[in-house]
User: Fold this.
Amino acid sequence: RLDPSCDSDLLATILGRMHEIEPSGTFSGELLFGVIDEVVEIVRRPPRPPSKEEVIGAWGEMHLLHLFLAGSNSADDKIKVLSCWESDGAARDIIDFRFSYASGGTSIEVKTSTSERTHHINGISQVTVPDGYANGLLGSLIIAETDGSSGKTACDLLADLRALVPDSDERFDEFRDSLGSKVSIRGPECSDERYFFSAREGSLRLIPVASVPKPTIGVGITEVEWVADVSGCLEIDATGAASLLSSISSP
Assistant:
């Protein structure tokens, strides 16, 4: 018995496929659903690729992560540094890096742009020093898109991160698995191969979150998002930044 709206030709095709699988003609609900699942899988749309803005954000985080890891002396130190990226368990963290051991506790939220130091802030928590931490920083990074003859894709950066621990090291498997887990949390933009970027020396500024412009929040408003121009904000000087990098890279 068919509902009048049923496509009889489509049903015949499904029944034909069921008969191929079960020539006896004894069909079960399980077989029907299995064939329908095959059809759904055939016509399922591929997942939406990450936007360029999403790739830029992940590229900036991995660029900083490479700086932190490259300064570490051992695989043990690199694994500990890596654990501080997206450190809120199995889900994305509101703050990109939480280094509980560095300079009394240091958090860094990375914002990356290809033009000016104008960044989208996703909430007050991104520019608030976390409880138990002495320092909260916004890492403002300016990168340039290239034509592919120079620069690196996010996938290239990911390969560079994997190569920081040689496969001959006894902790290589642990490092590789930990990196894979972090990338899985961060998303497919970490493996993107479409866009090439480069970061020049001096393109990173570490700005105390207290200096980041914030909107006035009225009574009854619990959360906001806004765009902040941090080009005029005070930043940590070169000596302070070098000291902080050393404390992060050497847990």
In short: The radius of gyration is 25 Å. Strands lie at 97-99, 106-113, 118-121, 135-142, 144-146, 196-198, 204-208, 226-229. The helical segments are 8-21, 29-43, 52-70, 75-82, 154-162, 172-186, 238-249.
